[in-house]
Design a protein that fits this description.
By secondary structure, the protein is α/β, with parallel strands linked by helices. 34% of the residues lie in helices and 25% in strands. Helix 1 packs across helix 3. It starts with 8 loop residues before the first strand and ends in an 11-residue tail after the last helix.
Amino acid sequence: MDTRPIKGIIVDGYCKGNPGIGGYRGLDLATGQEVFSIQIGICTNNIAEFFALVHAARWMHDNARSGERLYSDSQSMMWPFRRRQCPNSTFDTSRNPVVGKMMARAAEALQTIPLPETVWWNKNMWGENPADFGNKK
């Protein structure tokens, strides 16, 4: 697939510091419209990227979009997501108990929802991730 995708959902997570204040969002590639945006609070970049994937899978299922592809530029978080597992993390959830609750909900969702085909967003071929927050240093 050499041409830039124009259909599907693309996600990205961010973290200002690592750990630091973070969140994630998803965009509809066909319209460029933001379909969800979540602020997590203190987390790691990988946690934000992982939650973005799980949220997108749930959103796609709930909105009858499960036949479309889900794009992410986080290969490291696509691996556990595709295996229906939460990532190993050394993040201390006492710093933000919301992360622990979200991880438990993600683990449950991964066992109950169909997972869309997940494709790595190739920045070299397609340019910057359209869901990127633009806050890279």
